[in-house]
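Hi F.,

I've been meaning to write this up properly since the lab meeting, where we talked about keeping a consistent format for the predictions we share between groups. The idea is simple: the sequence comes first, exactly as it goes in, then the structure tokens exactly as they come out, then a line or two of notes. No screenshots and no reformatting. I'm using this chain as the first example so we have something concrete to point to.
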Amino acid sequence: MFEKLTNSWELAKASFRVLMEDKELIVFPIVSAIGTLIVSLTFALPLFLSGLVDSLFSENFQLIGFFILFLFYIVQYTVIFFANTALVGAALIRLRGGNPTVGQGFQIAFSRLLNIIGYALIAATVGMLLRMVSERSRGLGRFAVSLIGFAWNIATFLVVPVLAVEGVGPIEAIKRSANLLRRTWGEQIAGNFGIGTVFGLISFGIVLAGLIFGVWAFIGLESAALGIIVFVVMVIALILVGLINSTLSGIYAAAVYQYAETGHTGGFFDDSMVQKTFIANRY
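Output, unedited:
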């Protein structure tokens, strides 16, 4: 376990070195966060203000409710995949020796917009189907659905880099993603903690510190103002950590694609470090 956590920390540091070369890469997760917030408010506010939230999923309006939820998924995924495509495209320029700009990243994403929307439609369909089956399953059935969801996430791990670089359609991008992973590492993914776990631990530390200092400010010092300041600082820190996590995850996806295509990662990553993330299929 310690070795896996150490490898994840090294992956995070390597990704961070890329970010330090191109600090503007963090713009793409910021755009994604703002975009998803706008989409959520656009769908949620009219429903809450009109009081239709509960009735949409009643027996009489269930079909309409699922349609609205499906439409929400499509728009939300489109925004996320668009920003991720821009991020990965820009990161790949850096890994290949170039000097990317924010404009170049968005140019790549705009040039793949129709394919991104198509992939968002597929991802939304899969997400809705898995959700519907999971809600109607129990025990082993729900566990089986979770395994299918896990397999889907693995198979589509390289879809965004494929979309960014190769310009193929969404179905072909999914096939390419699965084939690249299978060809390079086999079908069994190692139990790697991943960059997300590293930042999960950091976030946990921030929340724990925020709670301790917040309670101390409210109770020990009897200062509501200081307690509020501690809470605001904690929220800002969590947002910043989340943005860095998203940026580094996109950079790492670009490095994995680069390794799968060429056998090397471009100098910022140790090739063996990326290779350790996966276990070759020996069966």
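Notes:
The mean pLDDT is 80.
The first strand starts at residue 188 and ends at 189.

If this format works for you, I'll send the rest the same way.

G.
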